[in-house]
Task: structure prediction
Amino acid sequence: MVNERLHIGIIQTSLQADAAWIDDKSGNWERCVRMSEIEERRAKREIRHFLASLRGLDRLPDIILLPELSVPLGFEPMLRRAAENLETIIVAGLDYRIETGESKPTVSNEAIVIVPRRLRRQQIARHTTVRRVGKTYPAPAEKVKLESITGGGVAFLPHPTVWVFESPDLGKFAVAICYDFMDLDRIVMYRSKIQTLLILAYNRDTTSFDHLAEALSRMLFCNVVICNCGQFGGSLAVSPYQEPYRRLIYRHAGQGLSNAQVIQLPLEILALHQQGILHKDMKSLPPGYDDVAELDMKNAVL
Result:
């Protein structure tokens, strides 16, 4: 059976988009979509600092989250070593990946899921594994910024694959990047498949994501965790508890604030509730969760 609780470390870095990705009008589009040297050094320093702070805790997190676009590409080996040393899964948003072999300048937006061979002193595999979760839909402002880069603009390559990760101890969880959080097709695919939804974001509209997290926590009947950048704040965790005051597990509001925090989410009772072993502390399952009705759409012309 899964663990009673899921412990998640949420790291908000203070990366500034206006300083990290600059169209310098040089015509070198690859330089424009790579994190600037100053912001890259600051990002590495912050990540090291927060990982070190988490290492000193009595109870290490099961999963550590880093926001969308927050990790310089060359920093991946260090994150892998950190995951192995902490014996913790790390889910981190990477800087833009330049796609070779395309007919025009093209980038993609990815996150990596690093699963070390040992989790909390228990060996689960022979080797550390790394999975890549791609973003399907660029945010409108993100698309405009890429397309406006001097020299003809830069295209965005979508990755329309939905990943679900399963662990005997940590349950089933999914990872999505920012704007994909609003993709209805993706949400339907998650239905009854996960206990935890992890969102990596670089999002200005924190209020909309707060409301969406609350709604999807009920509709999917799962924990929803948003790890946003410290530039805008808005990291959040909600669970479908019966009592309203218990549903908000964590919220970090306020702009320009870097932060790291470990939170605890319900896991065992949520998984049992999904299976029909109901628990008084949790909300009722949403309609159609375990008995989907075939709806008939009719069209009336007025």
